[in-house]
Amino acid sequence: MAEESQTEQSRAYFYRNFTYTRDHLARDYLAELHNYHDDSWEYPQRAARLSAAVKRYKTYRMLCFIFEIADSIDLDFTPLIVKRLCTRLFGRSGSQDMIVAIFGQKGRQHRSRDNTPSTLDEIADRYRLAAHSCQASTLSDIESVKRDYQAEIRKGR
Q: Which one of 27, 53, 65, 145 is least enclosed by Cβ atoms within 10 Å?
């Protein structure tokens, strides 16, 4: 049996520990409705929890995309490269702690050979259209979950 590549190990770790699908997002939104009480005003806390849920979903989809392109390019995926690619492709870097947990390599002492602006720009140019499509799909999912949430609020009145 062949030994798994670093990217395959990172992918397995990611899906095992950081999966956060549209269903998870919808469940978190609905949990806010079920946990709502008229006797306490906690709008800021609820808004913060929902905002965090949206950020988790965006980061999850963004990293799924990174793993999709990882199959077609030979790149030394380090936390810094992933962060820079995410910034170039999506305009955001996601959770630094999560990226380090997924792509960090304990004891690594050398810099990635792929960590050059020209290499990252070339990859970003090649995958920009697909990244925009992924981002549009992600935003559509979020809006759909928010609409369902608002419909549940109106139904509960």
A: 27
